Amino acid sequence: MSFYDAVVPAYLQMLNSLTGLLTKAEAHCAAKKVDPGVLLGSRLFPDMLPLSKQIQLVSDFAAKGCARLTHSEVPSTPDTEKTFEELKQRLARTIDYVKSFKPEQFEGAETKDVSFPSGPDKITTLKGQQFLSAFSLPNFYFHCATAHGILRHNGVEIGKRDFMGLN
Pairing mode, if any, of strands 122-127 and 113-119? Predict the structure, then answer.
């Protein structure tokens, strides 16, 4: 398996599934007469980030992960989304960005140094394989699963197949 095949399809699967989850969440709000802002601001626990921020972070980990692994310019995306539609547009832009990468851009990425911020004044450098498997993908999936958990906890009728993007 190429490094590209280990990276890009994983990001795309979950970005697309989250788009579907947000569509179902939006329909849930309309059907149950729930203010969408309440759901977008929901958290699993008070010290956790809200649904909207989970989606923004998923987008960031996918886009920045691809950029860092290919030594491309790391995109900066301000977190301004306040509606389901704006979050779905952000996911769509991220999907387009991730799709723009070509397999040859990832050649040798597993052994190249990848540097990234890991605190207010700290930069960490890992080899590409370690960056992907120990940092980028775990964070990406954490925020995907947390977004799913927030929606499920709030009564949106979704399950594992929705999380996997199979519905």
Answer: antiparallel
DSSP per-residue letters across 98-117: HHT--GGGGTTGGGSEEEEE
Residue 144: which of 55, 16, 20 has the closest Cα?
Answer: 55
Residue type, 102: K
CA atoms within 13 A on the CB side of 107: 4
47 pLDDT band, cuts 50/70/90, is: very high
Structure tokens at 160: 């594992």
- Distance of alpha carbon 93 from alpha carbon 59, whole angstroms: 9
Q: Are 89 and 16 in contact (CB under 8 A)?
A: no
Q: Does the pTM exceed 0.90?
A: yes
Give the per-residue pLDDT at 29.
98
Q: Which residues pair with 123 in a beta bridge?
A: 117
